[in-house]
Amino acid sequence: MKHLVWFRNDLRSEDQYALWKATQQAEKVIGVYCFDPRHFALTPYGFPKTGAYRAQFLWESVRALKRNLEALNIPLWVFYGEPETTIPELVKTHGITTLFTTHEWTSEERKVTDALKVQLQGIAFHELQDGFLFHPEDIPYHAAKEIPEIFTEFRKKCEKLSKIRPLVEPKAMPKSNYEITPELPTLASCGITPQSADKRTAFPFKGGENKALARLEDYFYT
């Protein structure tokens, strides 16, 4: 089986459920991320949807993901293009049989997901729940109407009856799984003019999984 992991708003390799699932009993695993041109367009009000600093942070996060996946012998293909256009070509080229991704909830992301599903009929498409403290299947309620209106009541019951799931670690693939992929698209190719951060900024943070973990370590333990 040849699996593809579609990264969206979950740019990490550690405790990444879709990646973990994909690396179980697969002969080949590759990843893909798309810098969607729609994310860099103007809103109906004339403002850029993604500013220069946010775009830089995103680019750094994708670069870090690519490096971390390389350590697992998993190549990350990165495109500037709409997912429903670029991913089907990648699926065809690599003979992908199954796509794994994290379930997205908001309207714009759902439209992209639905459009891609139309293009990938015949391919197993798995949207996995991730990013929760308590997994939806583990909370002590069987239907939405059972959830109390008061958060404190909800929290106390979850703390008493639910357990946080353990971290999952993706399996490293054999070296033969890895292949050299093109460099990341530049910010300029996304229509973004890079900006230099003011040295007086109170938020001198860089993007990427490793930087995020270091920030957590510093915040909680330093």
Structural features, described:
This protein is an alpha/beta fold. The chain has helices spanning 17-22, 52-71, 83-94, 107-119, 151-161, 209-221, and strands at residues 2-6, 28-35, 76-80, 98-102, 124-128. The mean pLDDT is 94.
Helix and strand arrangement:
Layout: E1 2-6, H1 17-22, E2 28-35, H2 52-71, E3 76-80, H3 83-94, E4 98-102, H4 107-119, E5 124-128, H5 151-161, H6 209-221
Parallel strand pairs: 1-2, 1-4, 2-3, 4-5
Helix pairs in contact: 3-4
Could you name the key traits of this structure?
6 helices, 5-stranded parallel β-sheet, single chain, alpha/beta, Rossmann fold, 222 residues, 13% strand
CATH homologous superfamily heading: HUPs
SSE run: EHEHEHEHEHH
Helix content: 25-40%
Care to count the β-strands? 5
Q: What class, by secondary structure content?
A: alpha/beta
Low-confidence stretches: none
Number of helices: 6
Radius of gyration over C-alpha positions, nearest whole angstrom = 19 Å
Architecture, according to CATH?
3-Layer(aba) Sandwich
Q: What profile does the largest beta sheet have?
A: 5 strands, parallel
Spatial strand arrangement across the major sheet? 3-2-1-4-5
Annotated CATH topology: Rossmann fold
User: Strand share of the residues?
Assistant: 5-15%
The average pLDDT is 94
Assign an overall shape: globular
The top-level CATH class is Alpha Beta
Q: Ends: how far apart?
A: 45 Å
